[in-house]
Amino acid sequence: SGSHLTAKMSAVQWHSRNRPYEAELAAGCLGAVPVEAGDYHPLKPITVTDTRTRRPGRKGSSSSSSSSSSSAPDPLSSMLDGTDPLSMFAAAAGDASVPTASGESGRKRREKEEEEGVGIDFEPWATKRSEILARFTTTEKLSINLFMGLDKGKAPSPGSAVSEKVRTRLEELDDLEEGSQKEMLNLSQQDYVNRIEELNQSLKEAWASDQKVRALKIVIQCSKLLSDTAVIQFYPSKFVLITDILDTFGRLVYERIWTMCSDSKPFPESFSPEDVNDTAKETCLNWFFKIASIRELIPRLYVEAAILKCHRFLSKAWVSSNLSNLSKLLMSAPLVICHRSLLAQIGMEVSPHLKDSLNRNFFDLLTTFQQVHSDSVQNQLLLQHVEIPAYLILYSPAVHWILQCVSYRAPEALLTEMMERCKQLGNNALLLNSVMSAFRPEFVAARATDFIGMIKECDEAGFPKHLLFGSLGRSLASADPPEADRLGILNEAWKVITKLRSPQDYINCAEIWVEFTCRHFTKREVNTVLSDIIKHMTPDRAFEDAYPQLQSVIRKILTYFQDFSVLFSMERFLPFLDMFQKDSVRVEVCRSIMEVFIRCQQEPTRDPVILNALLHVCKTMHDSVKIKTNIGIKCSLKLLLYCIFRRCKIVKSPCDETFVLISVKLCTCRFENPVLVFFCQTVNQLAMETRRVMRGNHSRKTAAFVRACAAYSFITIPSLTSIFSRLNLYLLSGQVALANQCLSQADAFLKASVSLLPEVPRSLSVDGKLRSSEGFLLEFINNFLSTLLVVPDHPEQGVLYLVRGLLNIIQDYTWEDNSDAKVRLYISALHLLAALSQENYLYCVPKVDSNETLYGGDPKFVAEINKLCETLIGQVLDHLKTLGREETLRRQSSLAFSLFSSLVAHADLRNNRLNQLAINLWSLSQRHGFADTRTSVRTLEFIKQQSRQPDMAHFSELALRLPLQTRT
């Protein structure tokens, strides 16, 4: 391998520093450091002196002021309790005199905040919005009735008199009541949603342009849409979309009045009606008078509810009274429960402490719920071909929300009362389902037996019982019922679940109760559940439509059964995995099993049950890889498989049997050729023999077989089409041969790899797209360099002939324009050469003498290494000179810093020339401001830390000569 790499001897003479690898490893290990009670800790609250008042907000927000030291919240806590630095400054400016926390007024204020705020444990309406929109959809055509004059609004002229403005606005409102209507027909669901969004945007634009009457028109017209139940399946989604507009309108009105309250200083958010000036109060009253003039009942109720929060500017007593009045007026509205959910939503936002109003809302709901079974409703359902169970489902979001608002932090006595009132209605499965969903899981779990009794009494035709058991199961997944009741609860639930005929209904309910089973029972019960699932989901391949639920079952089992000897001893676990027959899903499931095993199995195992099951999982992963599988996926699977094998005591190195077989598959993935099929079988046999060799159980016959398999692999690999498959297999086969002490075969494989490198094209097709091959080539060569550390020199080829040959190939290869790949590989080669010059190598192959043994630190061998290092450094410096143009300065900075880091890690910087070179490279990397400041600072800290090590005192002086330069 005669080198034609020009050896440009610069003024630099390379000397590798001694690397005590074991000492470096010990120094790099993390150790436990005792922390005293008063020491700093990043998660410990910061102690400050607080003399300011925090703005009142959600529950947990404190408004105390103290001159003594107290624990201040961290920034994340401040976000949660509704405070932020700007708000704190504003509050301090608005109220300079604050009573102390120990005073009576401070106590009252804290109590007031606890009453008015809701905590983060309350699930807001916004989280339910997207779920409702996704759940209640339709394919039927929709229509929308709108006032023709909505798009004709214009702002009044600035010179108009006040009386003229008032008269004009009243005429516009009258025109709204009596004007013509425009009906848009045959709208798809998406068209309808888009039209509503346009109206919401028009509302904001009208408000921004000071067209308040036009904005009110839009809100009134949208409110009228809520009386239309033509496509009843879509009504919950329509309700959500339109109430969004109402929320927008209410927010705009409130913010306008709030801005009018401040005269010269910022107006606090926690104000009383006495703090509001007359102008703001008059404006607020005007809005209520405008809304009171709306003739139609439903729009008036909704718009008044939207601005209900504005009563805070007038009187707090009005909030409670108006909530009660609006609730009474909604008695006969269509889909009355949905309308009451809006009141509950506004009530929780405005005054969640007014529990009487919320409770009355719920008990009135129970009274009016019988309207669901009235003749008018039945006739409407008949016309729209909607069954009673499907119709009742429409009410579930609203009923659930109302119950959630009522039960939020409610005493147990109130929850019990509501439960009893639901019982008195009899056979009302919808309410019972909402009760189990909205009440605290602990409350439901403690009375699980009572709820099962109520479920049994419900009418199956009105609301399916499996939905009720599903809701009960969700509560029991979060809270534990009494231990004596658990087996009876499971038996009662499964009696209903196993009788379900619809596979989709069955798996939806079974998936919920799997968690209860895993949480409280042994593998025997879980195995029985899995058997029942297989029985129901196998006929007619029903499992193909239930992959998400089946995956959820696997996740829940892995959560509670992380002892894999127990998990894999379940007879039905592997048959359950066989139901995942879609490639992508099967790979994902197997991957989840492998990741949990790697995380939880800390000690290597020889348990045959675990080994057999894991081999089944690994084979599934192996068989899933196809010719078009992304190379990144292949690499990640290969890493997972290797981690699995290392924990199973069946692999001692990357050259062992199963790992070799799967690595071959991940590299080639082309089995349509019979020759390649036989090749893979041969590699499998080679791997099996490798296992015997590494255990020491091999004979001459075995060694001969290994050499024969290696020879067959050598002549078969060239038949592969993919050049990177050939390269990877040559390298992998060379590693296997080296592990079996077949040195000549290993040498032949590695030489073949080097000879193949010039044939690598500059681009290749990946997933049907042309991509640069440079990244793949860099990855392969770096892997190859790490292998060369343990490969002994051939006695007839000269010192480091494989390293020299590889460097020649790197120099002659046609790299991409404006690429630094060649120089980066030179820097990687420096790391290899520095490692080769050590007395003891970082790693070795058992029973193979590497160069550390062959040369024993011979001065001539070290001198050859130093010459190669000097040549490579010269090549890198020459390349850095070519990057002096303005457009390449960033690349120059990055490469200079890389070479500097290599010198710090591997060179003996006691040599003055090397030391000066390192300083020059640092200065070059910092000169134009393109260096990463954080990385540079950490590097300096490392150098200073190293200076405290034995024989590293010269690093102290080096650190002083490495200034940080900023961008100018």
TrEMBL record:
The keyword Protein transport applies. It comes from the Eukaryota. GO terms for cellular component: endosome. Residues 61-71 have a biased composition (Low complexity). Keywords: Endosome, Protein transport, Transport. Its main location: other. The keyword Metal-binding does not apply. It is found in: Endosome. Transmembrane segments: none annotated. InterPro entries: VPS35L. PANTHER family: ESOPHAGEAL CANCER ASSOCIATED PROTEIN, VPS35 ENDOSOMAL PROTEIN-SORTING FACTOR-LIKE. Belongs to the VPS35L family. This is VPS35 endosomal protein-sorting factor-like. It comes from Lepisosteus oculatus (Spotted gar).
